[in-house]
Specification:
Length: 378
């Protein structure tokens, strides 16, 4: 697996790679991960290889790997790769694609991110256009033996780009064991008697969190004891904190920063609803994590949320502040029996996203591609 983002970074791509790699290893496979080195320290693992990297100037949380010495490039092709799976198409992802072609190895690519929604991180005078981004996505994807789309909506998006390579819809899976045992309720969630709303994810401008804060102003006016817990970190955090500080409801909003999955489980288990407003996701893994913990969701309606949040597992509403706020108030005011029904529906909606079941499907795709390549190169 070749990726330009990895732990200690916290995002959906990293979560998906780590969970899938662990599940494949449990199935008896050797999974080698090639990722950028990080100044905060890297996990030690015999099958985890770090390449020298530097902070991306316009998005410091993202690492850019350096070109490799010729000696390393010469030696890496001898490593025993049966399948190469790229999770990005930046330097490390492209390096993986180069090795795949050099060794006639099946090349997979998971389209985790709608890159055209992240162009605002580049300075205006260096910004590439949306058509150029779509061209890059199409060119890289069409060199692959199989493209993995995390949702049906993403598959349709990729087809609209003109991608002709085979596409398989295969979401990222959730490994509940990674969330750890039930722990004490965090102090930030114990104080007060009103509903506790949880938002989880990277704090980027493209995540539509200003809409969430506007909606929470309405929620807090109607329910003065309501609280909003925002879990995550990112380049837009300082701006969001400034906005909250100027709000009449600043005391009801808490930023926890990024949390490990082992810490996050207790937040999912003790909140009253996950509030989700992003429209730029390819899957929205936090939706599945919340549902797997029995936490109902209130989300803005879009193809991704429509695919995950089924039936009584939550409520989908248009991107209208008053409508979103009313949906949250109504859901959190439901009787305990109705809340129990929603929790059961949430777990049912998350059941197909078991990481082990999805890893088994990925394994079958790998083996099929490997057998096909073996026949083609005889």
């Amino acid at each position: 697996m070749f990726t330009d983002t990895y732990a200690p970074e916290t995002n959906g791509v990293v979560t998906s790679i780590v969970s899938t790699a662990q599940s494949l290893r449990r199935r008896g496979h050797r999974v080698i991960v090639v990722a950028p080195a990080h100044p905060e320290g890297d996990e030690e693992h015999p099958d985890l290889f770090h390449l020298r990297s530097a902070s991306f100037p316009f998005y410091p949380e993202f690492r850019m790997a350096f070109p490799l010495p010729a000696k390393v490039v010469a030696n890496l092709p001898a490593m025993p790769f049966d399948v190469i799976h790229a999770h990005t198409f930046f330097f490390i992802g492209c390096f993986g694609a180069y090795l795949a072609r050099l060794r006639h190895t099946p090349l997979f690519f998971t389209y985790h991110t709608k890159f055209e929604d992240y162009l605002h991180y580049l300075p205006v005078n260096q910004r590439i256009t949306k058509p150029q981004t779509l061209w890059l996505s199409r060119q890289f994807s069409n060199q692959c033996d199989r493209v993995i789309a995390p949702s049906q909506g993403t598959e349709g998006l990729l087809r609209s780009y003109g991608i002709s390579a085979p596409i398989e819809v295969l979401p990222g899976g959730v490994d509940l064991e990674r969330f750890g045992p039930t722990e004490d309720v965090p102090p930030v969630m114990r104080s007060g008697q009103g509903p506790v709303l949880l938002s989880v994810g990277r704090l980027g401008k493209e995540k539509n969190l200003e809409f969430l804060l506007d909606a929470f102003d309405m929620i807090a006016t109607a329910a003065p004891r309501a609280r909003l817990i925002i879990v995550g970190d990112g380049p837009y955090r300082a701006e969001l904190e400034r906005r909250v500080a100027a709000s009449a409801h600043a005391g009801q909003i808490t930023f926890t920063g990024a949390l490990e999955q082992s810490q996050l489980g207790t937040y999912y288990r003790n909140a009253d609803a996950l509030v989700f407003t992003s429209l730029t996701e390819t899957q929205g893994l936090v939706l599945v994590e919340a549902l797997a913990h029995g936490l109902p969701v209130v989300a803005v309606d879009c193809p991704v949320t429509r695919e995950c949040v089924l039936g009584d597992a939550g409520v989908l509403v248009p991107e209208q502040t008053e409508v979103f706020a009313r949906a949250v108030l109504d859901l959190t005011a439901e009787a305990p029996g109705r809340h129990a029904e929603r929790a059961a529906a949430a777990r049912d909606a998350a059941a197909p996203y078991s990481v082990d079941a999805l890893a088994a499907r990925l394994e079958r795709l790998y083996l099929h591609a490997r057998a096909h390549i073996a026949v083609a190169t005889r």
